[in-house]
Design goal:
alpha+beta
Protein backbone atom coordinates (compact mmCIF):
# COMPACT_ATOMS: atom_id res chain seq x y z
CA UNK A 1 0.00 0.00 0.00
CA UNK A 2 1.41 3.38 -0.98
CA UNK A 3 0.98 6.64 0.86
CA UNK A 4 -1.44 9.17 -0.59
CA UNK A 5 0.04 12.01 -2.61
CA UNK A 6 -0.66 15.56 -1.48
CA UNK A 7 -3.35 15.85 -4.17
CA UNK A 8 -4.98 12.56 -3.16
CA UNK A 9 -4.86 13.56 0.53
CA UNK A 10 -6.49 16.93 -0.19
CA UNK A 11 -9.19 15.31 -2.31
CA UNK A 12 -9.96 12.73 0.37
CA UNK A 13 -10.16 15.33 3.14
CA UNK A 14 -12.50 17.48 1.06
CA UNK A 15 -14.94 14.53 1.11
CA UNK A 16 -14.26 13.46 4.71
CA UNK A 17 -15.49 16.69 6.27
CA UNK A 18 -15.60 15.34 9.85
CA UNK A 19 -11.91 14.39 9.70
CA UNK A 20 -8.82 16.57 10.00
CA UNK A 21 -5.10 16.01 9.68
CA UNK A 22 -3.50 15.16 13.00
CA UNK A 23 -0.79 17.62 13.98
CA UNK A 24 2.71 16.28 13.57
CA UNK A 25 1.71 13.04 11.81
CA UNK A 26 0.57 11.77 8.45
CA UNK A 27 -2.74 10.70 9.99
CA UNK A 28 -6.35 11.82 10.19
CA UNK A 29 -8.47 12.14 13.31
CA UNK A 30 -12.08 12.48 14.29
CA UNK A 31 -14.05 12.66 17.52
CA UNK A 32 -17.63 11.37 17.62
CA UNK A 33 -20.16 11.94 20.41
CA UNK A 34 -23.16 9.70 21.01
CA UNK A 35 -26.22 9.67 23.26
CA UNK A 36 -24.51 7.58 25.91
CA UNK A 37 -21.84 4.96 26.60
CA UNK A 38 -23.92 2.06 25.31
CA UNK A 39 -24.41 3.66 21.89
CA UNK A 40 -20.72 4.61 21.72
CA UNK A 41 -19.74 1.01 22.56
CA UNK A 42 -22.11 -0.36 19.90
CA UNK A 43 -20.54 1.98 17.34
CA UNK A 44 -17.07 0.81 18.34
CA UNK A 45 -18.18 -2.81 17.92
CA UNK A 46 -19.31 -2.15 14.36
CA UNK A 47 -16.06 -0.36 13.55
CA UNK A 48 -14.03 -3.17 15.13
CA UNK A 49 -15.73 -5.80 12.95
CA UNK A 50 -15.18 -3.75 9.78
CA UNK A 51 -11.58 -2.99 10.74
CA UNK A 52 -10.85 -6.65 11.44
CA UNK A 53 -12.33 -7.67 8.08
CA UNK A 54 -10.04 -5.11 6.41
CA UNK A 55 -7.06 -6.08 8.60
CA UNK A 56 -6.71 -2.36 9.26
CA UNK A 57 -7.14 -1.18 12.83
CA UNK A 58 -7.72 2.33 14.17
CA UNK A 59 -6.02 4.00 17.09
CA UNK A 60 -8.86 5.04 19.36
CA UNK A 61 -10.10 5.79 22.83
CA UNK A 62 -13.50 5.96 24.46
CA UNK A 63 -14.66 8.10 27.38
CA UNK A 64 -18.34 7.66 28.18
CA UNK A 65 -20.17 8.93 25.06
CA UNK A 66 -17.14 10.10 23.06
CA UNK A 67 -14.93 8.08 20.74
CA UNK A 68 -11.68 9.62 19.48
CA UNK A 69 -10.24 7.95 16.37
CA UNK A 70 -6.92 8.24 14.52
CA UNK A 71 -6.26 6.54 11.18
CA UNK A 72 -2.87 5.98 9.57
CA UNK A 73 -1.33 2.99 7.83
CA UNK A 74 1.71 2.18 9.93
CA UNK A 75 3.19 -0.24 7.37
CA UNK A 76 3.18 2.56 4.77
CA UNK A 77 4.29 5.29 7.15
CA UNK A 78 1.23 7.48 6.66
CA UNK A 79 -2.17 7.91 5.06
CA UNK A 80 -3.27 5.43 2.40
CA UNK A 81 -6.45 4.56 0.55
CA UNK A 82 -7.17 2.00 3.30
CA UNK A 83 -7.52 4.87 5.79
CA UNK A 84 -9.92 6.69 3.47
CA UNK A 85 -12.05 3.57 2.99
CA UNK A 86 -12.20 2.91 6.75
CA UNK A 87 -12.97 6.58 7.47
CA UNK A 88 -15.96 6.41 5.11
CA UNK A 89 -17.23 3.28 6.88
CA UNK A 90 -16.74 4.95 10.26
CA UNK A 91 -18.70 8.00 9.06
CA UNK A 92 -21.54 5.75 7.91
CA UNK A 93 -21.62 3.85 11.21
CA UNK A 94 -21.54 7.14 13.16
CA UNK A 95 -24.50 8.49 11.18
CA UNK A 96 -26.43 5.25 11.73
CA UNK A 97 -25.82 5.51 15.50
CA UNK A 98 -26.76 9.19 15.73
CA UNK A 99 -23.21 10.36 16.31
CA UNK A 100 -22.18 13.97 15.97
Amino acid sequence: MKKLTDTERSSALSQLTAWKLQAGRDAIERSVKFKDFSVAWGFMSRVALAAEAMDHHPEWSNVWNRVDIVLSTHDAGGLTERDVVLARKIDSFARDAGGA
